Amino acid sequence: xxxxxxxxxxxxxxxxxxxxxxxxxxxxxxxxxxxxxxxxxxxxxxxxxxxxxxxxxxxxxxxxxxxxxxxxxxxxxxxxxxxxxxxxxxxxxxxxxxxxxxxxxxxxxxxxxxxxxxxxxxxxxxxxxxxxxxxxxxxxxxxxxxxxxxxxxxxxxxxxxxxxxxxxxxxxxxxxxxxxxxxxxxxxxxxxxxxxxxxxxxxxxxxxxxxxxxxxxxxxxxxxxxxxxxxxxxxxxxxxxxxxxxxxxxxxxxxx
Length: 256
Fold this sequence. Notes:
The strands form two sheets. The protein has a seven-stranded parallel sheet with strand order 7-6-5-10-8-11-9, with helices on both faces. It folds into two domains: 4-83, CATH 3.30.1330.30; 91-253, SPOUT methyltransferase, trefoil knot domain (Alpha/beta knot), CATH 3.40.1280.10. It has helices at residues 16-25, 43-54, 64-70, 91-94, 115-127, 145-151, 166-175, 214-219, 237-253; strands spanning 12-14, 30-36, 58-62, 79-83, 105-110, 132-136, 160-163, 179-183, 189-190, 201-206, 222-225. The chain contains nine helices and eleven strands. It has 256 residues and is an alpha/beta fold. The chain is 34% helix and 20% strand. Strand 2 (30-36), helix 2 (43-54) and strand 3 form a beta-alpha-beta unit.
């Protein structure tokens, strides 16, 4: 059994969309679905119950007091599930196609500790077509119920690798032929002018507040910034991830 420090987490999933995607994806075993008593009828609830029963997953109701005691987020929307932990992917597997198709498009997280931000980043990465995510073992949030809720099901569709240290992982990516692009408000290159967007690439996102760590920044081939027109010095890390990832996705899908 792997050390819990290397576990991505994800055993508790809360929120209607997140539980629905857990069941739809069938990428790991769902152990139980719990519904709060008195939920108003809704198509998504019917879909969750139908999919769970089709898979032989136990569905039960809990009174509000019990449900609230089980929930780990402020807005579980009356639905939660227990599941096997998320299965991690080896870093080598994420870069295996660096010389072919599909070209790797990774998102690396450097010290993001806010669950809402991490969940939003995972949702962005999945939506933009990222082929994998790197999470450091230290100085980063695990996939807690709050992360899973904010990710809205993205964790079921993303390959994620837990790495001992991000600087070493970035060095490994470069050795495998990938470009590493760190987002930095002071970066000399605009994300809109990124010449390596269509190459095997990893976008590196820094922590809330301090941004990229010194070692991670030193391992990046390019430091890219997002042009701003207002007075604020920077964007929230999840918002910056959305701008950068969808800009790269746009460039990669454009006709040659």
